[in-house]
Amino acid sequence: MGRLGSWLLAGLGLVASAWALAQQQGADTTMPVVRISAPALGAGSARSSSVLEADVLARQPPGLDPFKQLARVPGMQTSSGDAITGSYSMRLTLRGLNKEQIGISVDGIPNGSTLSNGGAMPHRLLESANLDSIEVSPTAGDLGTPSNQALGGYIDFRTRDPALTRAVYGELSGGSVGYRRAFLRFDSGQSASGLSAYADISRSFQRTWPGQHSGRNLRWHADLRLLQDLGGGSSLRATLSYNRFADNDYEPVALRAISAPFYKATFEGDPGSDGLNDRWTGDPAQDQNHRGTHGINSRDILAHIDWTQRFGSGAQLVLKPYLHTQDGYGWFYVPYQQAPADGQAYSVVPPGGAPVASAQECFAGQYRRNADGSLQPLPRAEFPAGASAATLKALGCPAAAAFAMNPPTQWGARLATTRRSDYRIRRQGVLTEWSMALGEHQQLRVGAWYEHIDRSKSRNWYAVSDPLRNGDFDAARGPYSVTHDRRYLVNTVMAYAQDRLELFSRRLQLSAGATWQRSRESYASPVEFYGTRSLGAASGLLPKFSALYRADGGWELFASRARNFSAIPDSVFEGTAAISAKRGIQPETSVNSDAGLRWLRGAYGFGLTAYAIDYRDRISIQNGKPDADIFSRDATTTFSNQGGIRSRGLELSAQANWRQVELLLNYTVNRARYAEDTPAEGIRAGDPVLGARRRTGFAEITWKPRRAWRLSVNASYAGTAAGTYGEVPNTVIAGGPAAYPREYMPAYTLVGLALSYRPGGEWGGGCRRCELLLNADNLLNKRYLGGLGSELANSNPLTTGRYFLGSPRALFLTWRSSF
């Protein structure tokens, strides 16, 4: 296990010794009864809602990706390639929809896209040690929540404000696969003028777990927050966050050997490997599978201001301007070189012209056999060459299958390229809302949101200096080829209004409102086409209604219905995309409904919710050449609105808190189905939605024998989920099966543990808040498929079943203290 493993064992021994001492001292009989957490069950909300509060979040391993904090929310499933983060392999589903169909915000500021490469996952915009609460609205967010993708729910991550007293807080963590993390925060305390602030910095490092751990995840993060109390409930808050990370992630795998020709590994063949290797061989065809040859680097800066101005006791104005910038790139190593046929690195398409064809070269000495049997040297092999690539799979050059090669002993020098996709984002926007009370039982809200996005991404090809040694290249020489240079401009405007009434001595709460949203996009890529393409979409009026009735005995009944809108994604512009619908591309919409009841009384509570989601006008890629790269200039890609998804389900939640024991349970039954036939993808109406678990559940029991001790054990269950579309005829692999049957991701149950000890003043008065925390994730070391790479799927049946391995057992030991 190494030094870290020895340290962890020593830490476990220390915890065990302290635990035994606590038992000898006897239970603390002065502990008060703890009432249940009403926000966790959504109490007081007129729609389905769950709030994870600071004390719950503090039990999780420090540095945990905020998405993974959501495992205890009913209907939510999260997973990634490792126990802490995993940006590319991070999967999230909620009531049958994925993370690209759920709205996300940090302190009310929209995060934009949740794509790992060219988007902004929430862990890049906040520090987990500063999380104060997470609010999840599975059906629809509160009126006015800003998002271009909230078709089925909304998640808002809220971070803490500066402390009123001066303090220094720190965390040190170590764990499995080389995990190391340090965090330090300084709170200034509140001055006589009402100004308070904090600044923090953290660094975390972890290696990838398969193989010999050649990959790594390195992250630096820093925050600065100023809060000025303006008196009378008014305040001015300014926040600046900086994040930089470098990540070698995990490769998708196939479920079984039937798909092996297109994958590096299969789950049934080896559930502990994703097929990537750790040793450099000098052969580019093999080294393209080296873990260090592909990953993501990114730097994010988020700045925002929250000005809240109160006018008397019944009116309030909120103004939130923000700016988010991102610079990064993803890279991948390939065993060939690809350049425009005209020999120029950057070839602009002229008016009325077509893009310059690209060509590949795998070997410096490549030949074509003439009719008389002689070999004619070729400078490059044109791609596509009009022939199957299967023959040359082992050689690592898909184009050369169309050519007769000279004997391997006469092959020339191997060529290799680092293909780097550079991306840049600049988002700036503002949110504002005016709310006022009309008497004691009515409140009006009106608000607006504006955002401008300037986003670019390019695919640049760099010649590797010496493939025999490593994948390094000379960036100063610039790329030898640029196959796309894309720029997107997006403007979004949203307006909303709501009227809320309270009747019958505030037993009945009624809300009626509506949202309107418009998005306009333009797209240019000089090496792919001439000019600029543009597209606009408006939502029309999106009504939202909700009702809450509070009955005697702690009972609540609620119901809500909301129509939601998702702007047309800019992916419809990419490549040589075409739109195959008489109406053109229409924005995706959904109608979300839920109804339920809650009961909360003292130490007990439960909730029951039924929901329905009708997701319409689903936009889908229809690739004209399934095994082509849709991001190259050679592909023909078509987009159209194809049917939708119908999701129906039932959620049950229960909590009980006693003096020494807490209990949490939730269970969800979800039926998510495609609503219409989409023959191009092999989908029939009624087929299960890819990656949507049929049943999920979570249970946790916490024991607190003394005030200083807490032990929590939990179990998370995920039922089966479809991994591929319905049975599809084999048109790709010669000699393969006649058809590919639907695959299902197996069900699994994971067990976790959290043990904490807070000595209080026993170890000296200087440590006001000290804690020793031990976390175990996947304690029983279950091997499982955590999620589906749905964004990697297209109409080819061999590329729908792309799965990510779930993380193995991981242990983490943390020391927290505040002075």
UniProtKB/TrEMBL annotation:
<feature type="domain" description="TonB-dependent receptor-like beta-barrel">
    <location>
        <begin position="233"/>
        <end position="779"/>
    </location>
</feature>
<comment type="similarity">
    <text>Belongs to the TonB-dependent receptor family.</text>
</comment>
<dbReference type="InterPro" id="IPR012910">
    <property type="entry name" value="Plug_dom"/>
</dbReference>
<dbReference type="InterPro" id="IPR000531">
    <property type="entry name" value="Beta-barrel_TonB"/>
</dbReference>
<keyword id="KW-0472">Membrane</keyword>
<dbReference type="GO" id="GO:0009279">
    <property type="term" value="C:cell outer membrane"/>
</dbReference>
<feature type="signal peptide">
    <location>
        <begin position="1"/>
        <end position="22"/>
    </location>
</feature>
<keyword id="KW-1134">Transmembrane beta strand</keyword>
<keyword id="KW-0408">Iron</keyword>
<dbReference type="InterPro" id="IPR039426">
    <property type="entry name" value="TonB-dep_rcpt-like"/>
</dbReference>
<keyword id="KW-0410">Iron transport</keyword>
<keyword id="KW-0732">Signal</keyword>
<feature type="domain" description="TonB-dependent receptor plug">
    <location>
        <begin position="46"/>
        <end position="140"/>
    </location>
</feature>
<keyword id="KW-0812">Transmembrane</keyword>
<dbReference type="Pfam" id="PF07715">
    <property type="entry name" value="Plug"/>
</dbReference>
<protein>
    <recommendedName>
        <fullName>TonB-dependent receptor</fullName>
    </recommendedName>
</protein>
<keyword id="KW-0813">Transport</keyword>
<keyword id="KW-0998">Cell outer membrane</keyword>
<dbReference type="InterPro" id="IPR036942">
    <property type="entry name" value="Beta-barrel_TonB_sf"/>
</dbReference>
<dbReference type="GO" id="GO:0015344">
    <property type="term" value="F:siderophore uptake transmembrane transporter activity"/>
</dbReference>
<keyword id="KW-0675">Receptor</keyword>
<dbReference type="InterPro" id="IPR037066">
    <property type="entry name" value="Plug_dom_sf"/>
</dbReference>
<keyword id="KW-0406">Ion transport</keyword>
<keyword id="KW-0798">TonB box</keyword>
<dbReference type="Pfam" id="PF00593">
    <property type="entry name" value="TonB_dep_Rec_b-barrel"/>
</dbReference>
